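Thread: "does anyone have the structure for this chain?"

Original post by V.I.:
We have the sequence but no experimental structure in hand. Need at least a predicted one for the grant figures.
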Amino acid sequence: MSKIIFLSLVWLVLFPVQGLAALNISPESQEELALRKGAVVRAVEKAAPAVVNIVTTKQTSVSPFQGMFNDPFFNDFFRQHFGEQQRHTSSLGSGVIVDGRKGLVITNAHVIAGASEISVRLQDGRTFNAELVGSGPDFDLAVLRIPGSRNLPEADLGDSDKIMPGETVIAIGNPYGFSHTITTGVVSALGRSLNTRSSYFSDLIQTDAAINPGNSGGPLINLSGRVIGINSAMLAKAEGIGFAIPSKKILEVADELVYQGSVSPVWLGVFGQDIDPGLASYLGLADLSGFLVTQFADNSPARRAGLKAGDVILKLNDREVKNRRYYQLILRSLTQNSRVRAEVWRDGKIWHMEFTPALFTPKIAENLAYSRWGLKIRLQNNELLVSAVRPGSPAARTGMEKGDILRAVSGQEMRSMDDFVRAVNNSCMDAKLMLVVGRGRGDYHVLLVEE
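Reply from O.Q.:
Generated one for you, tokens below.
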């Protein structure tokens, strides 16, 4: 045994084990570094400092007996006698600074929806509290401001009208809380549309760059390092299909959000109905797609452009108008600066027209609500009160009275006159309308039916 140990020591003296410590990393030449530092790396270095991680806190009131009883009576009883507990939840998202001097950040509306606190974290580790400047849920865009900030890094906006299908794009965001994650892909398609239960998003950029939870609100950039879109959505159960809101739409919407906090609703001043088999046969239509124009509002922009009663709107901005609901959803994706190209069926032929939408003002909403539903509304103590009910109107037939509180219209809560204006705009052609009305200590569901 001692002989073996002696031989081992001799071996180590003659042939010492140097291991990995003897290896050296060879210096990299400037040419090699330049070769690796391609267009993607340069684009990321340019834009990444302006990308922020957004953390929101939402505060909700929950009964301590939540879920124990299905009966509304017991839920109201425990809420009144035992109060409610405050629950705080956090969520993550991304954003991009587009004005470093003013500290303006663009993100998605759904990222900050319902947030009581918003904080943003920059790539260099600095963290700031942010305030909401404005939100446009119909466009899934929002603008934040970092108060008191000066000379923050900012990203340059590119021209989304010049995007080429197949060109390389880069998504930067904070998926699952991992800060500043880079994914690459190509522009798969342009002009895509997504139809959800409550919104219609048009002119989207489709990309196969990976977009995961937390990427929402982050930028999609081109190889010049310019922001050409804001990553917004990914189809559930789909791989390699992501969507971004183009920079042209961002400019239209952000301008209104900065100066007035919301995006003013627009309309064409048109009323109409769906196509049934009898109408399709009479008008010579191949199927039931389209929106039949029946009436116009006073000084209607569509009528001024040459639209007539009896025309069938088939497409708006190359988007198929399948029925009245699609017509209304497409209008909600437009702003006062939009131009509307229409494809219209008239006398067995296709006609092409162009419209400029008009603002849907509070005065228009007031007149429509009274003429169609029989309601006049005023804001008092942060509640929408019924100030008048027209005799014989749909509202009068349901028993609504002056002094009732309007809580919700078609499932949308009414917190301001802006909410009411949007509700009238979205529902002014509906033959049936569900309201939630407060009276005394209770809330009631009321169905308005036009005759």
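V.I.: this helps a lot. The chain has twelve helices and 26 strands.
O.Q.: and The first helix runs from residue 2 to 14.
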